[in-house]
Amino acid sequence: MAAETFTIEVCYASDAVQFLRALQVPAGTTIEQALALSGIAQEVPGLDLAALQVGIYAKKKERDTVLRPHDRIELYRPLIADPKNARRRRKSPASS
């Protein structure tokens, strides 16, 4: 009897690269295993996977999280600017 498999997605985006890959994985696959299966490390040279946070549908998760059907693994880059400070700068009147 064949092991149950299901579809998940791995996605990453930066200014220069967009990566989205659908994969068939066996039940019990973790985020870490899916990242290895996706080939993102080879397809996006210079990407330090260990340094990036991961999540499923915008909720941060640990890499040993077991996946469920239709999960989308997202790789999160560090923020360049604090969103609260950016909003404050946009709202405050320009000083002259």
Automatic annotation (TrEMBL):
Gene3D superfamilies associated with the record: RnfH-like (3.10.20.280)
Entry-linked InterPro entries: Mopterin_synth/thiamin_S_b, RnfH, RnfH_sf
Pfam families noted in UniProt: Ub-RnfH
SUPFAM superfamilies in UniProt: MoaD/ThiS
Protein family: Belongs to the UPF0125 (RnfH) family.
Record-given protein name: UPF0125 protein GJ699_08330
UniProt source species: Duganella guangzhouensis
Lineage: Bacteria, Pseudomonadati, Pseudomonadota, Betaproteobacteria, Burkholderiales
